[in-house]
């Protein structure tokens, strides 16, 4: 998507994973809700009731897309909060079963850290002690395409002492879609609830039905940051894992305009999701094909079972930060390293778990407004940028 | 403030505590930041750096108002989150000193519940067990005006085993200002950090300097809901009390447009705060005087040391919900019961702690746009509304 600002008329933003520009209808909805729904929806007067109706409508709209009941959908302060609360409250609800949270190795940091915290807290530590407890087996490994070993995950779920399992729908960093159906079948048979992190997929591909708890991220589909979505099937037993509050999913309550804008954006992107997916998949295929001609590159992630809008590659003899900076100088914004913590540019735990190159990494996530022309320009600029960075690092001859 | 909507041309909204309409400049700022600051501020490219600059500017502006250093100011997901995180992380930072959190009896439910949770979690319970532990003395009592017994609070702070003390700057439900300076002096001498909940006061009266942690609420001063402010003096030792995250104050990061709008709103209300306070104090004095002529009423809260924009009264022989509904029918939105949980209409713990009438309660919080004419109309309508509700309840002759 071009953001025409003075001096940068042809800026191309290809780093839309987890923080996309707002959908135009979301902005309209937000404005409307600021006028109609700014009041506290828990109040009894007309303004409060109007806000409550907007909030109910938002939950209903989100529920319809997720294939959930309205009362199963909760708004949270954001996607990380959704994941933390989901792990903590589902684990607390099954405290008698155990405290192990089975995860894949490529879950978001928030899930891995919440799982470690749950295990540590149950180990008779007082709250606040966060050293990850040693957990038999650790996260379940993935293959070189980023796909979890489903047999190993199922075996881990069937082991004693498991409170919860967590498997993402698709990995936002490399695009690989996970086998959530088969894992969910096994988890149901074992009586273990499955948390599906769909934060990188909802709005881009069809929402799976195979979940007991499902987290989705409005900021990823063109809604606002500052609000998250967590759906919890009614059959799932949860318990509070923090101080009491009227709303355990969003302590203090949620902002109605944010929730309403999130719901409207979701409806809007669902309306032409299939066309958008096909269009972006074609562009991503083009990028993946073109990039593969650059010397010493590894195109990352499952070539088939993948998100339609994400493409990731790692270059040998290149520093990721330098490449992001070089591309930025030429008008292209891209991500690098870990989708969750790209600022730190620490080696991505996702790439490391896949056994692929962890340095020289570039990730693009196409917006709905990204054009074929922008992708062509990116493909034209990338080889030179890689060569220049290699030259700066003294490996130009390679 | 009149919200002219079709069919309700002269609606008067007097329930602005904790959820006020946005300041016009906050809306402008939000729109601007949506264009400039929608990207993830942790990213390295131009869009990310632009968002980071907006966020830095917002922190700097808030810090200037709060009398804090920029690096001491953190944005959170909201005021309840600020209070929960402040209690949890300050208590975790002083785990060796003890696990008691000394509070007044009129703190917000979020503070009381976080204090109870901290004590329970330290009592060798696994995380998630939320039964409040018996704590010697319990919350420190207040007098009939809502003012905390400073001597008793200081004695409680000096007792062994205290991790943290919490005293609000002013009570949002009844307006009473607390003696934070004298309590802070004693807490400093005892080496106990003091959390000051200024969620009902910042933007309305001068910010006190007497704090170690200070929480303030943008939604109360005309900024957005969905973002909170927590300032922590650099000398305060804190520790994580939950899963690790890059940003322990707002896991997953904060929405830059929300933070920016919050800061702009704060600057805007600070610019004419003194005039606004004088104007609203005169209106509140008028209401308090007029209401005192209604039979069987108790005008609540300190008549002198109080917030300029809050007025609260309790009527004998009246049901609070019925009175809110009756006033709503005549075009006036007011609060009732507890400022934090007015939807439930459970007896307010604040009113109960003060030993005043807990039923038949009405609270108004004037917006900056509330006019003298609106207040006069409210004063004209209120006696009849009270009489009608008493009649419905069969106490019309009293």
From TrEMBL, chains A, B:
Cofactors that this protein relies on: pyridoxal 5'-phosphate
Signal sequence: where? none
Q: Does the keyword Transferase apply?
A: yes
* Pfam families attached to this UniProt entry: Aminotran_5
Alphabetically sorted, this entry's keywords are: Iron, Iron-sulfur, Metal-binding, Pyridoxal phosphate, Transferase
A GO MF term: cysteine desulfurase activity
PANTHER family referenced in this protein's UniProt entry, alphabetically: CYSTEINE DESULFURASE, CYSTEINE DESULFURYLASE FAMILY MEMBER
Similarity field: Belongs to the class-V pyridoxal-phosphate-dependent aminotransferase family. NifS/IscS subfamily.
Record protein name field = Cysteine desulfurase
Organism whose genome encodes this protein: Promicromonospora iranensis
């Amino acid at each position: 998507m071009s953001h025409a600002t003075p001096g940068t008329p042809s800026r191309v933003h290809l780093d839309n994973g987890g923080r996309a520009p707002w959908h135009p209808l979301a902005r309209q909805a937000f404005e409307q809700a600021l006028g109609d729904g700014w009041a506290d929806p828990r109040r009894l007067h007309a303004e409060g009731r109007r806000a409550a109706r907007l909030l109910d409508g938002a939950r209903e709209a989100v529920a319809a897309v997720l294939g959930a009941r309205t009362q199963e959908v909760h708004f949270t302060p954001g996607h990380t909060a959704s994941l933390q609360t989901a792990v903590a409250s589902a684990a607390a609800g099954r405290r008698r079963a155990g405290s192990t949270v089975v995860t894949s190795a490529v879950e978001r940091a928030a899930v891995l850290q919440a799982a470690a915290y749950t295990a540590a807290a149950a180990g008779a530590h007082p709250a606040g002690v966060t050293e990850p407890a040693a957990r038999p087996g650790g996260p379940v490994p993935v293959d070189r395409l980023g796909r979890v070993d489903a047999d190993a995950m199922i075996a881990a779920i069937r082991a004693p002492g498991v409170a919860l399992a967590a498997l993402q729908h698709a990995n936002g960093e490399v695009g690989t879609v996970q086998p959530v159906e088969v894992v969910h079948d096994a988890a149901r048979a074992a009586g273990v609830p499955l948390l599906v992190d769909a934060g990188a997929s909802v709005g881009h591909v069809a929402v799976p039905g195979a979940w007991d708890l499902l987290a989705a991220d409005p900021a990823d589909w063109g809604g606002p940051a500052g609000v998250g979505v967590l759906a919890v099937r009614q059959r799932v037993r949860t318990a509070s894992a923090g101080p009491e509050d009227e709303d355990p999913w969003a302590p203090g309550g949620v902002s109605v305009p944010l929730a309403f804008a999130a719901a409207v954006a979701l409806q809007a992107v669902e309306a032409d999701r299939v066309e958008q997916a096909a269009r972006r998949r074609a562009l991503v295929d083009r990028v993946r094909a073109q990039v593969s001609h650059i010397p010493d590159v590894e195109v990352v992630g499952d070539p088939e079972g993948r998100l339609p809008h994400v493409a990731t590659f790692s270059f040998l003899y290149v520093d990721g930060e330098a490449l992001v900076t070089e591309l930025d100088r030429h008008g292209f914004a891209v991500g690098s390293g870990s989708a969750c913590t790209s600022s730190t540019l620490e080696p991505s735990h996702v790439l490391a778990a896949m056994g692929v190159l962890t340095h020289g990494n570039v990730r693009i996530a196409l917006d709905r407004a990204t054009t074929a022309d922008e992708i062509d320009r990116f493909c034209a600029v990338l080889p030179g940028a890689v060569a220049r960075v290699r030259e700066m690092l003294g490996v130009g001859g390679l």
